[in-house]
């Protein structure tokens, strides 16, 4: 229930309260429960990272929003085989 808040506002409030899991669709969580515990944790962390990218794209201040080029780079970092988003530089 969003109350008087729109979807974006509701999601921002939940994340600010540390309740990211309430924003993620429960059906997605059920689909991920077929694997090992470690795999499930990794998938949930990945979902949260996608949520973080999403919220950056809808920041109240347009100047704080990433460009499409930056969004593509962030999403590529989240793709499998990208070392879990960590940098390869030494």
Automatic annotation (TrEMBL):
It is a single-pass membrane protein. GO terms for molecular function: ATP binding; protein serine/threonine kinase activity. Its EC number is 2.7.11.1. InterPro entries: RLK_Ser/Thr-Kinase. Keywords: ATP-binding, Kinase, Membrane, Nucleotide-binding, Phosphoprotein, Transferase, Transmembrane, Transmembrane helix. One of its GO terms (cellular component) is membrane. It is found in: Membrane. It catalyses: L-seryl-[protein] + ATP = O-phospho-L-seryl-[protein] + ADP + H(+); L-threonyl-[protein] + ATP = O-phospho-L-threonyl-[protein] + ADP + H(+). The keyword Nucleus does not apply. Its main location: membrane. It comes from the Eukaryota. PANTHER family: OS01G0323000 PROTEIN. This is non-specific serine/threonine protein kinase.
